[in-house]
Design goal:
It contains four helices and no strands. The longest helix has 76 residues. The protein is mostly helical. The chain has one domain.
Length: 147
């Protein structure tokens, strides 16, 4: 709201200056031909300001083009970074799964080793050894996949 008030003040100030200037010129230059000659002096200045305005417009378009190009480049970098992050997350999840599998096999093998030790000399010992060897083989396969 404050910016809007300042804009109104500037507009009213410009109108006031224009009115004072018009009244002053009307009374200072008495004849119509004198006023016409005085007004024609500003034709070149008007063309100069028009040219400056056009140059400013072209420069603004150029700057906006640079800004849009920079924004597109930043968006491309962000996309690449997100894709890299997604790939790293996928690899991390895969490694976590492998680690969980290795831990599970390790626990199973440890349990069979304990059962074998507790049942030395009993007929179930061979069954436990066969089961343990089966999980050793699965563990080797998982380790081979990792390596």
């Amino acid at each position: 709201m404050k910016k809007f008030n300042i804009l109104i003040l500037f507009a009213l100030g410009a109108i006031l200056i224009q009115l004072i200037y018009g009244v002053a010129m009307f009374y200072m230059i008495g004849t119509e031909t004198g006023r016409g000659t005085f007004g024609d002096m500003f034709g070149a200045i008007n063309a100069l300001f028009t040219g400056i305005t056009l140059a400013g417009l072209i420069y603004t378009i150029y700057q906006q083009q640079k800004d849009v190009t920079a924004a597109q480049e930043m968006a491309n970098r962000t996309t690449i970074a997100q894709e890299n992050s997604a790939e790293a997350l996928r690899q991390q999840a895969e490694n976590l799964h492998r680690t969980a599998t290795l831990n599970a096999y390790n626990i199973i093998i440890s349990a069979y080793i304990q059962l074998i030790q507790e049942n030395k000399g009993y007929p179930v010992e061979n069954t436990y050894k066969n089961e343990r060897n089966k999980y050793f083989e699965k563990l080797r396969k998982v380790i081979d996949e990792i390596i």
